[in-house]
């Protein structure tokens, strides 16, 4: 109760100072004087940003590092991120992490956004944004706060819970390009996209021929049912460009669960572990190696289990380098075989 007056003042301030993002077609919003409005398509919705955002709040590591890669840390009011996202001192954006406030070790909430006096929230569906927590672009718009949705997380449709509408690496390039326009750093964004495409092409050029590529299963976590990556999650493109075949490529979703019987039936040559969360990669590997239903799976029989960092596997600037690292591992298997 004592916070309610302050929150009301914050809402009013945001309504006056927000970035002016609005869905086009309403006819009521007008761009602020002296600013060139920018319109981009984000998850199928054309959205106009009347001013350059100055107090951006992000959710989680990949989204935060997209902003850092674009050199936009001075446009940020903070980020929310669990503390299990690896060694942030070893990344190219160490200095940026030192400048931008770490708002919370939990997912974003509307209260955090208001307290940070954000004028734009950059998050994803089920990845910061969600109907259950009341943090949606529509709800933020009513408060005068803009939003940008991570393309990897786009819903197929309003009533469809499945996520993903583009190949994962194209989603990364799409977001870099769109954010480059919104923040007027188009040249910087174009240079990053060119660099990342070059890194991926270099790794892909050394991949085995299609008929000789190892099959790969991405294991995120889960005992009763494993969480894995369909064709719209980052690992699908990372595996494919590195010279492997995602055994769950037919799943028209990003991150989703399957049954262990499906994993056994598809008999992957390699299992990639997503290293994050309360369960360590070592414990995940121990589980896979000791779980009786998997005993006959090729990856388990031949101890072909490879660990990758969470931030390499969700949409982030780390994806292109991750392609190269996995490609080297897969080539090593080929040479050993």
Q: Nutshell version of this structure?
A:
With 337 residues, the chain is an alpha/beta fold. It has helices at residues 4-17, 61-69, 94-99, 110-115, 137-142, 168-182, 186-204, 234-241, 260-266, 281-290, 298-301, 310-313, 319-336; strands at residues 21-23, 38-42, 45-49, 56-59, 76-80, 102-104, 120-125, 128-129, 146-149, 155-157, 160-163, 215-219, 227-229, 245-246, 255-257, 270-275, 305-309. Helix content is 37%, strand content 20%.
What would your notes on this structure say?
Residues 1-23 form the signal peptide. Residues 55-337 form the Fe/B12 periplasmic-binding domain. Belongs to the bacterial solute-binding protein 8 family. This is Iron transporter. Keywords: Signal. The chain has 337 residues and is α/β, with parallel strands linked by helices. It has two domains: 4-149, Rossmann fold (3-Layer(aba) Sandwich), CATH 3.40.50.1980; 208-336, Nitrogenase molybdenum iron protein domain (Rossmann fold, 3-Layer(aba) Sandwich). It has helices at residues 4-17, 61-69, 94-99, 110-115, 137-142, 168-182, 186-204, 234-241, 260-266, 281-290, 298-301, 310-313, 319-336, and strands spanning 21-23, 38-42, 45-49, 56-59, 76-80, 102-104, 120-125, 128-129, 146-149, 155-157, 160-163, 215-219, 227-229, 245-246, 255-257, 270-275, 305-309. Strands 4, 5, 6, 7, 8 and 9 form a six-stranded parallel sheet that branches. The chain has a four-stranded parallel sheet with strand order 14-12-16-17, with helices on both faces. Helix 6 runs antiparallel to helix 7, helix 7 runs parallel beside helix 13 and helix 8 (234-241) crosses helix 13 (319-336). It is globular. The relative contact order is 0.12. The model is unreliable at 1-17 and 25-34 (pLDDT under 50).
